[in-house]
Design brief:
heterodimer; A: about 110 residues; mainly beta; 6-stranded mixed β-sheet; 3-stranded antiparallel β-sheet; 9 strands; about 0% helix; B: about 120 residues; 10 strands
Amino acid sequence: QSALTQPASVSGSPGQSITISCTGTSSDVGAYNYVSWFQHHPGKVPKLLIFDVSERPSGVSNRFSGSKSGNTASLTISGLQAEDEADYYCSSHTRTNWGVIFGGGTKLTVL
Amino acid sequence: QVQLVQSGAEVKRSGAAVKVSCRASGYTFTRYYIHWVKQAPGQGLEWLGIINPRGGSTTYAQKFQGRVTMTRDTSTTTVYIELNSLTSEDTAVYYCVRGPDSGASFLNWLDPWGQGTLVTVSS
């Protein structure tokens, strides 16, 4: 099964907003409201930012928000900060093998 | 607090097997699934599979079926992943991650993460 499709890279200036897309199929992203987003700084452990499409765990900044339309989920980061520079991954429950599938990852550069 | 502590780095020869452990603490071990996730150098995250510590049932990603085995020891609150017939493509950091409640039907909850275990496969 192929990974969910994310742009390889996005960039933005401090203070701006960016959106990262995550496109799947009717067997995963489109089928369930079980999409998560993770932030991963190299050398560190991935951090859960968003679960169930748009829910934030306690302690995660409200600058991070999630949404979904059809087979595509999106992560929006507002008020970009230098420390937001990292890799971002989406994941979804999938009916294929009844498991989890990840996106290929998006590298965010803060200019 | 909830913690997942993994075993140390491993270096293996091609064709060998590796077994990585993940000890859970800070919560009732049998209440939550545990995932295993792989990240090869310069690559993204890849889901390997999941184990339910309550009964030991497993679901593996199709790509790894036949080559991966996940087990658990409830007496030590530890889960294990064993990967055999190693090749250079198995060189990666392997993470254990707490999943959803063991009664959940949908598996897409991954938090918190273990610190990761680097497995290096040499020829």
